Amino acid sequence: MSVNDPYAALRFKEFNIFLLVRFAMVFAWSMQFIVIEWQVYSMTKDPLSLGIIGLMEVIPAVGMALFAGHIVDQKEKRNLLIKCIFGFSVISFGLFMLSLPSVLATYETKTILYGIYVLVFFGGLVRAFLGPTIFSLIALIVPKKIYPNAATWSSTTWQMASVLGPALAGFSISIIGVHWSMCVIFGFSLLALTALFNISKKPILNPKIGEPVFQSLREGLTFVFKTRAVLGALTLDMIAVLFGGAVALLPIFAQDILHVGSEGFGVLRAAPAVGAAITMLGSTRFPLHKNAGKKLLFAVFGFGVCMIVFGLSTYFWLSVAALFLSGAVDGVSMIIRQTILQLKTPDNMRGRVASVNSMFVGSSNELGAFESGLTAKLMGTVTAVVFGGTMTLITVGITAFVSPGFRKLDLQKDVEDHEK
């Protein structure tokens, strides 16, 4: 097997099963988030309520992240992932029950809304463990020399699921309604759970089993903050996503600005993921290792420009194009960041480093949702999106100016060392 083979990771049966599990989970999670957004905004017509959804998920996800990373590094990964997916299935079933017509007719809107927020909160707890567990499990399924290829396929699968999940959500809301859309989500979570049993248990590579929690957490944080390539990539992406993300406001654009209904909402929500998926598929043949720092800076700058265009657009297909291109450049950013993490992180610290990553980047999506909802409430929806895109451009400029070493970051040598 050649390490230059674009399908190297796909030669391993368990990795293909892993991709199926990841696809089903991301599909279910992204579809669920869209259905929840649509239902909540339809109930309240308040942009701040969309921001609260993100806040309810990010509080437990960030609050538990470091402790989750410690636990992931101490436990067997396959069984831990089974527990995570089971927890998500319980939450999905709860949302399915909350959307029953009889429940909606019996309880006040505020009660239903609070119930949704509570379940989203518990979803944040699950997510605190899910990301680090998946990141750690990949390294136990494929040989180290094809980590970059496996990371690319894993990210591509994530994006493909992110394409289809939102798209199906928009159409399913229109065709079968919110309630039965929740049932579809529950079904995909069960598919992921069933498939996961076809992956064998994996060894625990951490030599410090039973290490005190705070000592373990300090070791993980020290590694991240001392590894400049990791810290720079996480910080840049975090700030860009925090200020530049307009996804949380898409229900407002679909319903009140572009007037395209739930079907158009699904297209808008899927457009960034389509762009990112195409970028990631292309990267399997044209790697992004060389001059990674410059490519990452240009990618985040392009993301900010796309957000400004989207915010100012009043034409549906121009908005779709802007979101598509934002996803394409964001795909570059994601691939480079994941490659840095896979190449620079020791096996015994993957859970903790992935947890820090989820705090920096993953949770910034939800904080960005809250920021977008709050600024939309204060400034207006269009102004909020343009403001976020502008802040992204400023962030890239500052990073490029104060960190010349990051501009020169090149991963080619790291990749070659892992291939030996």
Automatic annotation (TrEMBL):
<feature type="transmembrane region" description="Helical">
    <location>
        <begin position="229"/>
        <end position="254"/>
    </location>
</feature>
<feature type="transmembrane region" description="Helical">
    <location>
        <begin position="179"/>
        <end position="199"/>
    </location>
</feature>
<keyword id="KW-1003">Cell membrane</keyword>
<feature type="transmembrane region" description="Helical">
    <location>
        <begin position="112"/>
        <end position="141"/>
    </location>
</feature>
<feature type="transmembrane region" description="Helical">
    <location>
        <begin position="80"/>
        <end position="100"/>
    </location>
</feature>
<dbReference type="InterPro" id="IPR010290">
    <property type="entry name" value="TM_effector"/>
</dbReference>
<keyword id="KW-0472">Membrane</keyword>
<feature type="transmembrane region" description="Helical">
    <location>
        <begin position="266"/>
        <end position="284"/>
    </location>
</feature>
<dbReference type="GO" id="GO:0005886">
    <property type="term" value="C:plasma membrane"/>
</dbReference>
<dbReference type="Pfam" id="PF05977">
    <property type="entry name" value="MFS_3"/>
</dbReference>
<feature type="transmembrane region" description="Helical">
    <location>
        <begin position="296"/>
        <end position="318"/>
    </location>
</feature>
<protein>
    <submittedName>
        <fullName>Putative MFS family arabinose efflux permease</fullName>
    </submittedName>
</protein>
<dbReference type="InterPro" id="IPR036259">
    <property type="entry name" value="MFS_trans_sf"/>
</dbReference>
<keyword id="KW-1133">Transmembrane helix</keyword>
<keyword id="KW-0812">Transmembrane</keyword>
<keyword id="KW-0813">Transport</keyword>
<feature type="transmembrane region" description="Helical">
    <location>
        <begin position="17"/>
        <end position="36"/>
    </location>
</feature>
<feature type="transmembrane region" description="Helical">
    <location>
        <begin position="378"/>
        <end position="402"/>
    </location>
</feature>
<feature type="transmembrane region" description="Helical">
    <location>
        <begin position="153"/>
        <end position="173"/>
    </location>
</feature>
<feature type="transmembrane region" description="Helical">
    <location>
        <begin position="48"/>
        <end position="68"/>
    </location>
</feature>
